[in-house]
Structure formats: structure tokens, C-alpha cells
Amino acid sequence: MCRLFGFRSVIPSQVHRSLVAADNALSVQSSAHPDGWGVAFYVEGAPHITRSPSTAVDDNLFHRVSGVVASETVLAHVRKATVGKIGVLNCHPFQYGRWTMAHNGEIRGYADHRERLLAQVHPRLRRFILGDTDSEVIFFLFLTHLARHGAISERHGVEETCEALRATCAQIRAICDGRTEDERALLTIIVTDGVTMVAVREGKELYWSSYKTRCADRDTCPSLAPECEAPTATGFVNHLLFSSEPIHGENIWLP
Questions:
Q1: Which residues, listed in sequence order, are joined to residue 57 by a DSSP beta bridge?
Q2: pLDDT value at position 174?
Q3: Which positions ≥6 away from 180 have C-beta within 8 Å?
């Protein structure tokens, strides 16, 4: 399938280690997921996205982008094509306005369900679907549900984003799932607008981390807090990561 990486922090941070330098960085994972890559990062609230149908580990552009990105919010993806041809239009993350999304999984029998799924996307949004993947349709279904909570351009909090993502997955399952496990859609997804980041794990692995064994920047970071190096006692965290595989290093990963 694919590999995902999501990062959200209270301060701009570099993600070079997670994308390139770690023993199992996203670029290393791309050897088994060679059909394209994408990196979205946010600057002053706006997403900047670079995508390519090349294999990340062999692509100088991926290494250049990964080396310069310093942001509070990053979403990255390497692709192993299952639905849709190899091409830049089918590379994740997908973007509309401030929102970006990456998906790991597959809607089984997508060709049989595509027209019915597209019919559920708001007509105003449907024309922005440019590729031929199930993942892009999932994204615009999510935006359709999100719009029921107010204009997509408005700020949506965690609760509304979660509700829209749950409704999206439920709708896909109602339309597409068969009776056996092999006929169930695989829906592991990360969405963000640069402020809110939400993930769902349904069928493909996804790990998360909100604290470290010891922060390498603890002596210089102005935002160091107890929850940076221990489980939060309040529900608030200073950084949040999602990854298809635990990235080797100081972060404590949970399934």
C-alpha cells in the first residue's frame, strides 16, 4: 500500500530525520513504495505542496525539500499504487484550500463503486477531482461532510473534523464493503488544515507519538513542558506525530 507521516508542533521544527536521516525514514520506506511521493508543509497558515511520481529515495527533489522544511505542520506520503495509474495527479497529499489529506489503504472493488461514490461528493467540489484514485475521492467526500459544519474556508476544530472523517468512513463502508474481511475498505487517513490534525486507522497500521524519552532541544526550546517527555496529564500536547512505521529515535510510539 502506502506510507504516511504527519507532524504537528507548537513551534516550527525540521523533519529531515523522519523523512530522510533515520534508519527507517520515509525515504527508506519508499524503496517498497516506489510509485510517487508528496510533502505538504504550512507557512503562515497556507499549505505548500511538492509532489512527484518518482521514487522518493532516488529523487533529489525529495531530499532537497526534506532538508529545508521547517514548519509547525507537515504531512508526507510515499505511494505504492493499487488504484490509479502512476502520475503526479495521483500522488498524495491532496489539497483543497487549507486542507490536505493522505491515505493508506484501498477501497476494494473501487471501479464498481466509483460512480456511486462520486455522486455523494458535493457538485461544487466534484470538479476539482483531477486524478483517478480512490484516495482523492475519499478526500472530497470528507470535505463534503466537513462543509455541513460550515464553510470549508472557516476554521474547524478537532470535534467537527473527527465527525466529518467518521461520517466519511461510514459512508464509504455503507456503499462499498462486502460481507467478508477481504471485501472491507482499508481506510487509514490523516487530514489537516495546518492547525487541526486528525487521523483514523481502519485496516492499515498507524502509530502515534506525543512525547519523547528526552528532548534533544530541552536546554534551548522555549516551549519545553512536562508533556514533552511524559504522557500528558491534561490532554494537551506540544507535539503530535503519526507514522505508518515507528521512526527510530527519541519519540515514544504507540499503536
A1: none
A2: 98
A3: none
Specify if 248 maps to a domain.
no
For residue 179, the model assigns a pLDDT of 84
Q: DSSP labels for 16-84?
A: HIIIIISTT-HHHHGGGS-S-EEEEEEETTEEEEEEESS-GGG-HHHHHHHHH-EEEEEEEEE---SSS
Q: Which amino acid, 205?
A: E
Within a domain: residue 13?
A: yes
pLDDT digits (tens, 9 = 90+) for 45-63: 999 999 999 999 999 999 9
Domain harbouring 23, CATH code: 3.60.20.10
With both helix axes pointing from N to C terminus, report the angle between 110-120 and 134-146 in degrees, rounded to the nearest 10. Answer: 20
Q: What does the block give as the cell for 78?
A: 510515499
Residue 63 lies in a domain: yes
What's the pLDDT at 219? 84
Q: Is residue 251 part of a domain?
A: no
**With a cut of 70, which residues of the chain have pLDDT below it?**
none
What whole-number distance in Å separates Cα of residue 137 and Cα of residue 169?
A: 12
Percentages helix, strand, coil for the chain (3-state, rounded to 5) are 35, 25, 40
Q: Would you state the cell numbers that stand for residue 159, as one nine-digit string?
A: 470535534
Q: What is the pLDDT of residue 217?
A: 84
What does the pLDDT read at residue 164? Answer: 99
Domain boundaries, position 79: 3-243
Give the integer Cα–Cα distance in Å for 125 and 145.
11
| Sole residue written with cell 482499508 | 186
Q: What digits encode the pLDDT tens for the residues 131-157?
A: 999 999 999 999 999 999 999 999 999
